[in-house]
Amino acid sequence: MGFREVSVSEVREVLRGWLDGAGLRTVAERAGVDRKTARRYVQAAQEAGLDPAAGWDALDDGLVGQVVVAVRPVRPNGHGRAWEALLAHEEQIRAWVAGDGKDAKPLSIVKIEELLARQGTVVPYRTLHRFATERCGYRAKESTVRVNDGEPGAELQVDFGQMGYLTDQDGRRRKVHALIFTAVYSRHMFVWLTHAQTLAAVIAGCEAAWAFFGGVFKVIVPDNLKPVVTDADAVNPRLSQGWLDYAQHAGFVTDPARVRRPKDKPRVERTVQYVRGNFWAGESFTDLADAQVAASRWCAQRAGMRIHGTIQARPIEVFLQAEAPVLLPAPDAYDVPIFARVKVHRDFHVEVAKSLYSLPEQYLGQHLDVRADSELVKLYQRGALVKTHPRQRPGGRSTDPADLPEHQASYALRDLARLIGTCAGHGANIGIYAERILDDPLPWTRMRAVYRLLGLVRRYGPDPVEQACDRALQLDVISVTKIASMLERATEHTTPTLPTATAATTTRFARQPTEFMSRTTRTANSWTTPASRGTALAIHGTTVATEPVNAATNGTTALSLIPGSAREAIAREDAPTPRNPQKESTR
């Protein structure tokens, strides 16, 4: 037999009609119950001491409660016989509900009801469902405790939610996320749209939120975003270095929600669905910037002006009245830095954002922490600042000459002035000689010669090299090889012997002055003959000397030019006369 719970209002209505003198049939019709049920209520009231002549004052809560207990069927522990029958199968039902996670899967209540019926236990479905829920862990639900909203301006809850897809102007279809900020006290919200979930995107959303709210909330309750939380511990979560740096800049405290605990930030959890369904759904935007303008307008005019179901007020009005005056001042614009851990390589440099920065030799092979913003790159070792460089573009390099070995710094940096200064430090002439070596359209191609010159200084000492450079500069000889030869032969102090003029006496290969004398003129139009026979002319068209030689001038002569055709005539005259064989035989 089924069980129907007795209603207090039902009992009170039956007794009220009976006290007014109405019959049981009329009273039952008014209360909507059976006439037999109405008779049972009246009999139980009379047994509890109700007098028909008593008025309304006699129907107090105590009397009605006694009637309800009297007419309710006897149910041990508040349950009927079907419940008692299920107690014998509690362990089996618990196993069916849970399953073992391998082959046996959790069963539904309908299947459990069928299996119990095969065993001879037939119970109503609703009774089996209540039994499995209350005693066997079927779809167990935790209780919910409402947390106080706290003070105005104290807490801001943040969550990421996926909105949908947006096609850019270049035709790419990209996913759009919404970073939603909800004030706990006023429920006023701000929506920031982005394509990425990086630290830069989160910080950009926070900067836009401070501008929208006009200030900063004291406590931020974010989700466990990877850019924000690196170790999601329930008690001591570890925040990323970049987020801590920004929190110090803005002045707020971070209290992350626990993993898979949406109740830690309930004010913003339901807001994600509201934004997706009320703002994004059914809308069309040209690009992300257009969507962001629409989102800011929607937050101020639509979401902020609605009557919120919990606070029963307009969020923007509550915010402006209670929270806006107590917010922290908005910070200056934040230069989003890059945080990294790098290793100092053997080339005395570290790589940060595809750029190179130098460090001294004592840090080779060590790992350093880096903070790089748009202006400076700072390198730390165990929290101590060890080097600062100006930020370089990708592919650039910032090298401090003091970080490199002294004997390699000039060559690595192609610092010609430093190299010349090093040479001048060993001697003035050495410096001048190095400067003369580097006097070239491509001076860095001559740097090795200067380093060889410095090697000679280390080998022979600065004084001999200084003397050798002095002699070479006097003779205008710029060659490190010559300097090395002078030092090897120890001739840097010797005055070189210069070539002298030829002596007046005739040497083996010297020509006689008469060879250059002019031939006597035969006729007015004839040319002179060569001074000696057998002298061959080297090239056709050259000239022959025709002026007499002055022996007193050490072999120097004054020369006159003779045309090439005349020279051929002279050659014919000087040629020997051919012999006649017949004449020779007669002789």
From TrEMBL:
GO biological process, one term: DNA integration
Record-annotated Integrase catalytic domain positions: 148-323
UniProt biased composition (Polar residues): 515-528
Chain residue ranges for the region called Disordered: 507-528, 563-587
GO molecular function: nucleic acid binding
Biased segments, Basic and acidic residues type: 569-587
Entry superkingdom: Bacteria
InterPro entries: Integrase_cat-core, IstA-like_C, RNaseH-like_sf, RNaseH_sf
Protein family: Belongs to the transposase IS21/IS408/IS1162 family.
UniProt cross-references to NCBIfam families, sorted A to Z: transpos_IS21
Protein name: Integrase catalytic region
Organism: Intrasporangium calvum (strain ATCC 23552 / DSM 43043 / JCM 3097 / NBRC 12989 / NCIMB 10167 / NRRL B-3866 / 7 KIP)
